[in-house]
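Async update (no meeting this week)

Hi team, since we skipped the sync, here's where things stand on the single-chain job. The sequence we agreed to prioritize is pasted below, unchanged from the tracker. I ran it this morning and attached the output directly underneath so nobody has to dig for it. Comments welcome in thread, and please keep replies under the output.
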Amino acid sequence: MLKVRLLKVLDRYLGNAAVFFLRKPLPVVGHAPRTILFIRPGGIGDAVLLLHAIRLVKAKYPACTITVLAERRNAAIFFFCGAVTRILLYDHISDLLAVVRGGFDVVIDTEQWHRLSAVVARLTGAPLLIGFATNSRKKLFTHAIEYSHDTYEGESFLALLNPLGILPPDQPELSLEIPPQVAANVEKKLAVLTGKSYIVLFPGASIPERRWGTKKFQDLARKINDLGFPVVVVGGRGDETAGNDILSGGAGFNFAGKTSLAETAAILAHSRLLVTGDSGLLHIAAELKVPTISLFGPGIEKKWAPRDARHLVLNKQLDCSPCTRFGSTPRCRIGARCLALITVADVEKAIRGILG
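Output:
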């Protein structure tokens, strides 16, 4: 998280100054693009929701090469997408310099607020520069696209394709492609379940305000066992202890800290459903057509919650929520009551509803 905070500080001072001094680019009409760059700093959820747009660009221009400039924390997502030719790191100086040296026909900056990514886009010198017009960053694009907190984020990303004449299809295709070897490895790990349907819990969150609580997940795991389903806990290394506590006295397996992101996706793909907060894994499950129960409070449900009937959202709709804007959540002075008020009984009822 230190790198994330550093990038935000750099954006506040260096980004603002760079926007002031850089000139507004002039659009250049040219041939069908041969090289396209997507810039996607940020977390896993944004990266997952961007995959559909990348696939549409590749379908429109099958001969083009697509490069993604991502952060280390979300770069693994783009390995799921066969349309991506090359992945570079936003927080790796040599990769950043390689991007700035240019050679792209189109640059699409998918960052919603911060200015540094817009500065990087402008410095590439690409003839077509597309990005969100959320602040002074709009000056650096040939095509600045309006952005709204009331629009589902996947649709916001698709709006960035309008200058290319790309319209979304009625039925989006599956965007995540799990490597066969990864799927085979996970099947071996899940062999201990002897073919039983299982329910996945993800207790993790990037900030305390988005954590439902280990004790509640522990109580929920016991309720799920009573329904006849083993529990599988997933997450990063920081979630391993919580996973052990959640499964104490119950049937299940703790894979937190023991699997890569691709393996976690494969675990989700085989599951009956996922229970999670507003997280990147929520979007991975949704892309895999796995039913989800998501716990919302600080995050904007309209923008981030999956949108079809397979997914249930629990949200107490307090007057003070949602409070997150452009990826920043203020410190909560009332103990994140928006999540605390969601009970184990609420989630159990939702699970029963999905299970029919």
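Quick observations from my side:
The chain has a mean pLDDT of 91.
The first helix runs from residue 2 to 21.
Reply here if anything looks off.
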